[in-house]
């Protein structure tokens, strides 16, 4: 048998939960929260307030209004659980086009393939081959509201094909639609005593939409609606040397699992009531529903620090750190990355070192991205 069915279950929940974490928040399609490009993953999985790149669709589509060239294409590859299997991966492709100095549109595709799995009830039974997968197809439009500030909206179609044909039910995928609302601020270049500088601020409320449902009349599964906010500063020492420092905070706008009937444990009845919460109510509840109050709400916020050094816009070095509470998923890791640009082409690499006792599915994984930018140049000053 090539893989066990239990692997699929692990892939669905691994990014967000461990056995002892009853109140860790889990959602459907968690692949939407995985950093899908090597530049962002090299800086601690952040991108809401970093400078523009072709992969801004996932992090903050409002940055496309500050693109420096007419159009660009990016493709990236992220192996997943590489220490266990070799055919599970996340693929990402994006395309953007600037309509003029103030506006741009972009399209993106993220595909999470779980490889080929053999299913059988007994050892002697002929195996049934299945290829579970999930994908998201999205488009965005960004517009500068001033020389320094832009906003964007994005729409997303999500499909999760994790239900298997067994002779008694259809293997129809679960589908959903979601939207993003984002903003990005980039200050003019400011002259300080020993260097010039530029401030950046960004936010993105992503995956706002209805729940996924795999069975008719079955349980509703929340999408990973998420609030990202971040800031950054560029130290511009001269035209060849730039150092960017960034920080980012994330909070899932999804209700916290809790004991509704007060019997001291989370039962199946509690889970049923939890999943009956509407996504719209859940967004507002998520700011104050943690059973242990404000201290637990703070634990539901992840944070990251990242830095990027650019030399002549041809060579880049990156590093970062990501932190999540041990009670809410326990993801803690350092990342390293590098980028190389020649004319219109750029290749980026990143690597992750876990510092948590909970094993990270992306631990010791090398990720790749390839970008092409071409066409008319925009100064964006």
Automatic annotation (TrEMBL):
The lineage of its organism: Bacteria, Pseudomonadati, Bacteroidota, Flavobacteriia, Flavobacteriales. Residues 18-258 form the Type IX secretion system protein PorV domain. Pfam families: PorV (PF19572). InterPro entries: PorV, T9SS_OM_PorV. NCBIfam families: PorV_fam, T9SS_OM_PorV. The keyword Signal applies. Residues 1-19 form the signal peptide. Keywords: Signal. This is Type IX secretion system outer membrane channel protein PorV. The keyword Repeat does not apply. It comes from Flagellimonas pelagia. Coiled coil: none annotated.
């Amino acid at each position: 048998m090539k893989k066990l069915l239990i692997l699929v279950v692990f892939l669905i929940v691994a990014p967000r939960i461990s056995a002892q974490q009853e109140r860790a928040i889990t959602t459907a399609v968690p692949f939407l929260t995985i950093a899908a490009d090597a530049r962002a993953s090299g800086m601690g999985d952040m991108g809401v307030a970093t400078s523009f790149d072709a992969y801004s669709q996932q992090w903050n589509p409002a940055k496309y209004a500050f693109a420096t060239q007419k159009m660009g294409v990016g493709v990236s590859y992220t192996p997943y659980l590489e220490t266990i299997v070799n055919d599970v991966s996340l693929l990402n492709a994006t395309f953007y086009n600037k309509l003029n100095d103030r506006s741009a549109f972009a399209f993106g595709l993220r595909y999470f393939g779980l490889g080929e799995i053999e299913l059988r009830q007994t050892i002697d039974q002929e195996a049934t081959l299945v290829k579970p997968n999930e994908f998201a197809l999205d488009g965005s439009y960004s517009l500068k509201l001033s020389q320094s500030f832009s906003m964007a909206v994005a729409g997303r179609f999500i499909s999760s094909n994790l239900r298997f044909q067994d002779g008694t039910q259809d293997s129809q995928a679960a589908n959903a639609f979601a939207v993003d609302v984002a903003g990005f601020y980039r200050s003019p270049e400011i002259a300080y005593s020993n260097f010039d500088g530029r401030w950046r601020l960004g936010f993105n409320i992503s995956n706002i939409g209805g729940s996924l449902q795999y069975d008719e009349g079955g349980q509703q599964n929340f999408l990973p609606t998420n609030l990202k906010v971040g800031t950054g500063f560029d130290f511009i020492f001269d035209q060849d040397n730039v150092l960017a420092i960034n920080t980012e905070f994330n909070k899932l706008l999804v209700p916290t699992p809790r004991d509704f009937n007060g019997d001291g444990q989370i039962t199946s009845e509690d889970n049923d009531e939890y999943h009956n919460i509407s996504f719209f109510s859940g967004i507002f509840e998520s700011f104050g529903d943690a059973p242990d109050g404000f201290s637990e709400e703070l634990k539901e916020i992840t944070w990251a620090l990242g830095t990027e050094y650019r030399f002549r816009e041809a060579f880049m070095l990156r590093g970062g750190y990501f932190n999540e509470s041990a009670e809410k998923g326990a993801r803690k890791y350092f990342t390293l990355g590098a980028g190389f640009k020649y004319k219109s082409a750029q290749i980026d690499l990143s690597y992750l070192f876990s510092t948590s006792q909970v094993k990270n599915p992306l631990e010791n994984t090398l990720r790749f991205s390839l970008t092409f930018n071409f066409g008319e140049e925009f100064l964006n000053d």
